[in-house]
Design brief:
Blueprint (H helix, E strand, L loop, with lengths): L7 E11 L7 E6 L22 E3 H8 L7 E5 L7 H13 L5 E4 L4 H7 L1 H4 L4 E4 L19 E4 L4 H10 L7 E6 L2 E6 L3 H8 L4
Parallel strand pairs: 2-4, 4-5, 5-6
Antiparallel strand pairs: 1-2, 1-3, 6-7, 8-9
Helix pairs in contact: 1-2
Length: 202
Amino acid sequence: MAHTPLHTVYLTALHYPVYALGLGRRIGVWFQGCSIRCDGCIARDEWEVTDTGQTTVEEVLGRIAGFSPVDGATISGGEPFDQPEALYALVLGMRGIGIDDILCYSGYEYRRLCGLFPHTLSSIDVLVDGGFVNGLNTPYAWKGSDNQEMVILSANESIISAYGQYRNETRRKIQIIEGHSGIFAAGIPTQEHAEALRNGFI
């Protein structure tokens, strides 16, 4: 019998529960590596791909299957679409174990992703797209700069309704998480607070 090949993926972090990026109690997956590298990015430590971040999608899904209860998953980075095969395998695997709300962040614009990765977009529920623009402030809690858009892709009426309301959320949450490589913050700070974090003031 032929064995299904393992899908290599490079991650910065996998954490549960996450409350600061999306609705409810979520699984957070942070991809490692980013070719976009926006000026002012708060996640510069996730730009490079390192051997310490290497794992397999299958191993990640095995860990995710042990998390309960789960309201959804949020995939961020880094840039998830810089590892398109691994991202697609991960999303399909999440669907296969019953995760019904998948939110994905990308620095690429929706229109570009439609042309390159329509199969992946058809398998996620919500995309927040667009590169971070330093100085373009936003009042909304789910994005870092005002150019970014929330694209609701799901046909599920409850998800459409929930994220339709979440679009207007202005109360930001920052969750401090202790991971195997140290302490990191999950969530999207204001640009003022992001600058302070980069400079080590808070």
